[in-house]
């Protein structure tokens, strides 16, 4: 793997991966580092999220539990946790804190595609803002989800 440039922004580290091998490098880096939460922008930059602070982690835990119960009771879709990566139509690979896809859309994806970063934008996404997250960064991310097909965020 080529040397990467690291830019720090609060608790997010962006790694610029030189094209054209950006996608291959991202998949390989993700495979070799399963404990990291990594996203990739549509430009090919890797974004690494550091662990949540304790208070934020507790809020995320409570939201995940409630969301999981709702998803099971509702039965109309499939829910996903924060470590789930999705390949959006614009090429970005994102991992929302919580997400949901209608069951029919999920089942329409080939089973093999579900075993990787599925090429689908969730119908619903949630990003939990911690005190170190920049509002403009999260707003841009939510706009990206909307532009790629998310109906609610």
Based on CA atoms alone, the radius of gyration comes out at 15 Å
* Number of helices in the DSSP assignment: 5
- In what order do the strands lie side by side in the largest sheet? 1-2-4-3
Mean pLDDT: 85
**How many distinct beta strands?**
9
End-to-end distance, in Å? 35 Å
What is the global morphology? Answer: globular
Classify the secondary structure makeup into a structural class.
alpha+beta
Spans of at least 5 consecutive residues with low confidence:
none
Summarize the biggest pleated sheet: 4 strands, antiparallel
Strand portion: 15-25%
- Please trace the helix and strand order, writing H or E for each element: EEHEEHEEEEHHEH
Helical proportion, percent range: 25-40%
Outline:
With 153 residues, this protein is an alpha+beta fold. 36% of the residues lie in helices and 23% in strands.
Give the helix/strand layout.
Blueprint: E1 5-9, E2 12-16, H1 22-32, E3 37-40, E4 45-49, H2 54-74, E5 77-80, E6 86-87, E7 93-94, E8 98-102, H3 103-108, H4 111-114, E9 124-126, H5 135-147
Antiparallel strand pairs: 1-2, 2-4, 3-4, 5-8, 6-7, 8-9
